[in-house]
Amino acid sequence: MKVADLRTTIVAVPQRRAYPSSWRRSYLGSTPALAVIVELETDDGLVGIGESPVVYAGRPEVTVALIEGVRELVVGADPFHGDVLRRLLQAETGMAHLGTAGISWGLAGIDMAIWDLVGRACGQPLHRLWGGAWRERSPFYADIPPGEPAAMADDARAWVARGFTTLYCKVGFGIDLDVARVRAVREAVGDGPRIRVDANQAWGPGSARSAIARLAEYGLEYIEQPVLASNLEEMAEVRRSVPVPILAHEAALTPELCLQVIARRAADALQLDPRFGDGIAGARASALAAEAAGLPVVTHTFGELGVATASVLQLHAAHRNFVHANQTYYWNLVDDVIAGGPLPFDGPFLQVPTGPGLGVELDRDRLAEHAARYEREVRGRPPSVPQDPFYARDYLLRPRV
Ligand SMILES: [Mg+2]
After folding, report:
1. In 179-305, which ranges are E strands?
2. Alpha-carbon distance 140 to 142, whole Å?
3. Which of 108, 229, 322, 398 counts the highest number of beta carbons within 10 A?
4. Is 351 helix (H, G, I), strand (E, B) or coil?
5. Distance, CA 61 to ligand 1 centroid (Å)?
6. Residues of the chain with pLDDT under 50
7. Distance 89 CA to ligand 1 centre (A)
8. What is the pTM of this model?
């Protein structure tokens, strides 16, 4: 079996509400969610599907260019030699020398589609090829976007009423404001739900210690990436001096970084993304390394559609230590590109797909509809930015103090 053709389709899928993001522009900025759907067709007629996110300046054409740049290496490849192909792509794109995190997300759709082909050729969902299912469904959390504390409290109550048991808030906007927001959320939902906060590396070590000491009063599940991801010594020091467990995110983008976090004892849990580093295989290696170290893992989101969501669900099923709520904005989509429409939530849970490969099929009509929306409403226009200029500008440019 060899890959005979590679196709990409840019899609724009309507969202219920705009979510400001730490990436500011692109898929979460406002209005439609953007993604690049990848199809790899083999010489024996199988079609593997994948999905790459839109990260670079909100421009899906850049994602497509990254994929097209390796077309000659992918066409002709044997999907059962996927690890070899991945190393070849890293060598040919400079990633082997310069690091993977800056580009690898663009090629994620290829990695996903190669795995999908392997599963389809075997007639098995990927989690069965990876050793079986530790769970049949996987939990996700609800994101409470930053705003007035009273509005965040209303949001939190609504999510808990829908059955969500983990809530997530961004912090790092100023300690008093952070505390007011987290307090409002906690008071709104009572003691039961977990609250995870994410500082996106906002704090220096002193600020981190004092902020976390105050926020700890509200019973936090994790504080995500409180300090610079590049300074693991500082992260480990903060971890030792605060009463809230630390979740490594930007510090845990690749298997190599995960090993460093584990070795330096810089976190209590790791947030993985199969679109970075060594792709899905790398995320599996990181999950296994974390399991060996006794650490839970969760997955990060780029605002996936159903294809990439299916890929993380396969991952969640196959590894024992995906025990906590994962990040997603999937509940924000009005539609999807997969057959049957969006995967349905049962409270905070999505079922792990059991069809072959990723376990989902493209819906050609939906794919065409959302591709047409991209051409009609998005292409050639400036990338969208969130409506909240405080969040968008100051959050990204804030000093780390
Ligand atoms: Mg994060």
Report:
1. 194-198, 220-224, 246-248, 269-272, 297-299
2. 7
3. 108
4. strand
5. 25
6. 24-29
7. 27
8. 0.95
Q: What is the CB neighbour count within 10 angstroms for residue 380?
A: 6
Give me ligand 1 centre to Cα 166, in Å.
15
Task: Give the pLDDT score at 28.
Answer: 42
**Residue type at 164 in one-letter notation:** F
> What is the per-residue pLDDT across 191-245, written as a single tens digit (0 to 9) for each?
999 999 999 999 999 999 999 999 999 999 999 999 999 999 999 999 999 999 9
Cβ pair 321, 286 in contact under 8 A: no
Please give the distance, rounded to the nearest whole angstrom, from the Cα atom of residue 67 to the centre of ligand 1: 26
Mean confidence (pLDDT) of the chain: 93
Taking the centre of ligand 1 as the mean of its atom positions, its distance from the CA of residue 118, in whole angstroms, is 31
CB neighbours (10 Å) of residue 302? 24
Which domains can be identified in the chain, with CATH numbers?
3-125+363-382 (3.30.390.10), 128-351 (3.20.20.120)
Strand partners, 272: 299
* Closest by CA position to 29, among listed 51, 52, 59, 9: 59
Spacing, Cα 201 to ligand 1 middle (Å): 9
Nearest Cα neighbor of 246 from 259, 219, 227, 218 is: 227
Rounded to the nearest whole angstrom, what is the distance from the C-alpha of residue 396 to the centroid of ligand 1?
13
The pLDDT value recorded for residue 223 is: 98
